Amino acid sequence: MLYNLKMQNITISRATIDDAEGIQILTAISSKGMYELCGWSEKEIQNHFSPEIIKSGTNKLKENIAIFSDSDILFVAKDNNKIVGYCYAEKQKDINRIEAVFILPEFQGIGLAKKLYNEAYKYLNQFNKTFLEVFSSNSKAIGFYEKMGFVDTGKKVYDKRFVNSKGEILPATEMMLASKE
Ligand SMILES: CC(C)(COP(=O)(O)OP(=O)(O)OC[C@H]1O[C@@H](n2cnc3c(N)ncnc32)[C@H](O)[C@@H]1OP(=O)(O)O)[C@@H](O)C(=O)NCCC(=O)NCCS
Question: Are 75 and 85 in contact (CB under 8 A)?
């Protein structure tokens, strides 16, 4: 019932440059829980998503969307024109990559991430493997990706962009989805 009510107004479409700001705002809101799971303080999270950072992120994303090729797959979910979720994936030469799946907290748990992911996956090369990196502490997302068929490859990734106030880099776990036969 809740599923139907929340889903009934939602439309899914390819993102345009007009969606860039909504995507950045959504990322800031729905990252909060993700960074909390990773042990970041409220202040660290706020600093990571200051209005200046959201603005520069929006401009950068607009530039990127403007030069997107068929290999860049960015789908947004809108509820009455408000962006409530997105999935960004990339088709590379030999592999696919899932870069991000973000859902607004109040729209989580109704199957929206799955719907967006499945839509994006249709445009990937299904005869190649699909990889992603997810913060190792983000058990919620890991559970979701496992449900989508991904498995932990055992590789850890350390990206200096994701460092807390103690200077610790957040470890990420690489996950992989097998290619279709
Ligand atoms: C992770 C996230 C994308 C999941 O979104 P969601 O909309 O709640 O997921 P869905 O409702 O589409 O779930 C789809 C399926 O996965 C399952 N699932 C979702 N989260 C799960 C979890 N933590 N453990 C096990 N299964 C899970 C659901 O039960 C559902 O199963 P079903 O198809 O059998 O009904 C969402 O919590 C989110 O946006 N988190 C913050 C941002 C983030 O961490 N993104 C990932 C890093 S890029």
Answer: no
